[in-house]
Write a structure and sequence with these properties.
Layout lengths: L2 H9 L18 E2 L7 E3 L2 H6 L5 H8 L3 E4 L6 E4 L8 E5 L2 E2 L20 E6 L13 E6 L9 E9 L3 E11 L3 E12 L4 E4 L6 E4 L5 E13 L4 E15 L14 E19 L2 E20 L10 E22 L3 E16 L6 E16 L3 E12 L2 E2 L3 E9 L5 E13 L3 H5 L11 E16 L2 E22 L5 E24 L2 E16 L2 H6 L12 E11 L2 E10 L2 E2 L11 E2 L2 E14 L2 E10 L18 E10 L1
Parallel strand pairs: 5-8
Antiparallel strand pairs: 1-2, 2-7, 3-4, 5-6, 7-8, 9-10, 9-35, 10-11, 11-14, 12-13, 14-15, 15-16, 16-17, 17-18, 18-19, 19-20, 20-21, 21-22, 21-23, 23-24, 24-25, 25-26, 26-27, 27-28, 28-29, 29-30, 30-33, 31-32, 33-34, 34-35
Length: 643
């Protein structure tokens, strides 16, 4: 991460000429204080602490984003501010990696080691990058550092339940050329013991049919044609396999259930950047391909021949992207950004009646004006057309104000409108798809205070936000009259809440410390006439905790370091029934992870050895109803960096 990039964002200025600086680590999540919306960037320490994790682990530990996990190493989805998983958009190098079929992303399949920049946009702020993110968006990028020094990274971790993780990378380059190669491998049998409370009598069991294996690599080439033009090519290829273990209620029923998901994807991008004086032009293209297979097979309980249940789903998707963005900084702190995006999706699935697709084109303009370095206005307009149908215009209007001239103390507020299209599964799944669905429509407001204070050897920052969002035509799958479920525009969801974070970090002599704590209050209810008639109006939507919190403490002294991470997840409804029972409400839980290690340097090589204990108090919990989760487990890792 370059120091200049953070400075320029905070000051509202645009830097187009690239400077080669010595790399330094910036600790503390970087908050664009003058921004009219909440936007944060994960820092290097937090990403390093989660290097052997997937993106789900990083966001669960260091953000208010709620991660819904179906088990260790299996499906994990993200929810911003009480919205659904499909309302979270994930962009890699500016392109959405959300499945056009499901509209979601499995965060357990995204290795942290593939990226050195992770940004979060909350609420309407996501309109700056994409439409449809009613809750928020996650931006992933591997920034080239244009260094003449070759670098090699390697990390090997081994842990409980036959778990292995290997990551490696090599970067080489010159003033004109850069190459970065990353590989990642992770596997686990996940044969952990757990206490099954779904059977009578309750007893300890071992998780079965839970193997995972993920292998992937990225390759990035950068070429600087001259001082004004840069070209980059990037490819991300990955093979994933997940056995899906039976739920607790089924493990003693026999039948030899076999359920698994495997997929391969390739994501490829090309980008040209031109920048001169106060002007910048970006032109990008991409091609994504994914082949996904899901299979479920059950046999009779008496071990006789035959099959009771067989689902064999085969899906292939292709996506073509084109993007262009122009930005110019005028005098008097006035910035104009304009761009256009085009996406073409094609799906070949045995769950659809024929090949289906969607063509989407959008244009947008973003205007930012600063007044006397204390007051900022931001107006953004985004228009989108899907399959020839013009969607409602999506505007964002926001203001920020520096409350004290000599202090970094900012007030911000914004209002926006966002529209989310039905997924292709919503429209075309057979049986049940509903081609008459209309887009979900959200009106969002938010306000926040941000304070940052620099002391000798210490930095303190705090941020508080409140928000409210009304989402009309929310799509729900409900039972139909034909013995299958079908999606309908029936919900009117009101999401509101509060987010608070506090950070302090510093250094004194050989001692360095970093402390972070965050709390989120999230209230999300269905206020539709249908909910009122069914008696669950005002009841918290399923799998959205009313309260959640996390914290992280890191200390280091002369190469010795220790970390302590705490996750708190409040109780969650698993149905809209007002009755409180084990099958309708999951209890709250708190997890504690601790780590200790030593780093040292020999000539040009930096080494690190770390031991970690996850769930140190051996808490028995369920993130999703009747899905087993591991108790106390261990991990030993070794890393080195050569440059």
């Amino acid at each position: 991460m370059m120091a200049m990039s953070c400075f320029n964002k905070a000051s509202g200025q645009m830097a187009f000429d690239t400077l080669t600086l010595d790399q330094l680590e910036i600790f503390g999540m970087q908050q664009d204080q003058a921004s009219v919306v909440k936007k944060t960037t994960m820092d290097t320490l937090e990403m390093k602490e989660s290097n052997n994790f997937d993106l789900a682990g990083l966001l669960a530990a260091f953000s208010p984003v709620f991660i819904k996990s179906y088990g260790r190493g299996t499906l994990a989805t993200a929810s911003f501010r009480g919205t659904g998983a499909s309302h979270t958009q994930v962009l890699w190098n500016g392109f959405s990696i959300n499945s056009p079929m499901l509209g979601q992303v499995d965060f357990s399949q995204i290795p942290n080691s593939f990226f050195n920049k992770v940004e979060l946009y909350y609420g309407g702020g996501s309109l700056k990058e994409t439409g449809g993110a009613l809750g928020g968006s996650v931006m992933l990028e591997k920034k080239n550092e244009w260094t003449n020094k070759p670098a090699i990274d390697f990390a090997q971790a081994a842990g409980s339940f036959h778990s292995l993780s290997t990551t490696a990378g090599i970067s080489i380059g010159s003033k004109k050329f850069g190459s970065d190669t990353r590989i990642a491998y992770r596997s686990s049998k996940n044969d952990f013991p757990y206490y099954n409370t779904a059977v009578v009598p309750s007893h300890e069991m071992t998780q079965t049919n839970a193997n995972i294996a993920n292998t992937g690599f990225t390759q990035q080439f950068n070429y600087r044609l001259n001082r004004y033009n840069e070209l980059s090519l990037t490819t991300w290829n990955q093979w994933n396999y997940q056995d899906i273990p039976p739920v607790m209620t089924n493990v003693d029923k026999g039948g030899g259930q076999k359920e698994y998901l495997k997929n391969f994807f390739t994501r490829n991008t090309i980008e040209w950047n031109w920048h001169k004086n106060r002007n910048k032009l970006e032109v990008r293209g991409a091609y994504f391909y994914e082949d996904m297979k899901y299979k479920l097979q059950n046999k009779p309980n008496d071990d006789s021949t035959g099959v009771v249940t067989l689902i064999d789903s085969k899906n292939r998707s292709e996506s073509f992207f084109g993007k262009a963005r122009y930005s110019r900084e005028f005098n008097h702190a006035f910035i104009l950004v304009a761009g256009t995006d085009a996406v073409f999706n094609r799906i070949n699935s045995n769950n659809y009646s024929g090949i289906k697709g969607r063509n989407t084109v959008s244009i947008y303009t973003d205007i930012v004006k600063d007044f006397k370095k204390r007051f900022r206005l931001n107006l953004l307009l985004r228009a989108e057309m899907a399959d020839g149908q013009l969607l409602p215009v999506m505007p964002l209007f926001g203001v920020s104000y520096r409350l004290m001239k000599n202090e970094q103390f900012y007030l911000r507020a914004s209002v926006s409108r966002n529209v989310h299209l039905p997924t292709l599964n919503d429209l075309y799944w057979s049986p049940g798809g509903n081609t008459k669905l209309i887009p979900e429509d959200a009106m969002e407001t938010g306000a926040g205070l941000n304070y940052r204070k620099q002391f000798p050897g210490m930095t303190l920052s705090t941020d508080i936000n409140v928000y409210a969002s009304r989402i009309n035509n929310w799509i729900q799958w409900v039972p139909s009259g034909f013995q299958y479920w079908s999606p309908q525009n029936i919900a009117e969801v009101f999401a509101r809440g509060l987010e608070f974070s506090f950070r302090v970090q510093g250094k004194k002599g050989n001692f360095r410390y970093h402390f972070f704590a965050e709390y989120a209050f999230t209230k999300t209810t269905n206020e539709s006439p249908a909910a009122r008639g069914a008696g669950y109006e005002g009841r918290q939507l399923i799998y959205i905790p009313l309260n959640s919190a996390n914290s992280f403490l890191f200390v280091e002294y002369k190469g010795f370091h220790a970390g302590w991470t705490v996750y708190v997840t409040g109780k969650r409804n698993t149905s809209l029934n007002n009755e409180v029972s084990d099958s309708n409400t999951l209890p709250a839980y708190m997890l504690n992870n601790v780590s200790a290690g030593k780093s040292w340097k020999l000539k040009k090589t930096r080494f690190e050895l770390r031991f970690k204990v996850n769930n140190i108090f051996n808490v028995s919990y369920q993130a999703v109803l009747w899905r087993a989760m591991p108790g106390r487990n261990y991990e030993l890792s070794f890393m080195f960096h050569l440059n």
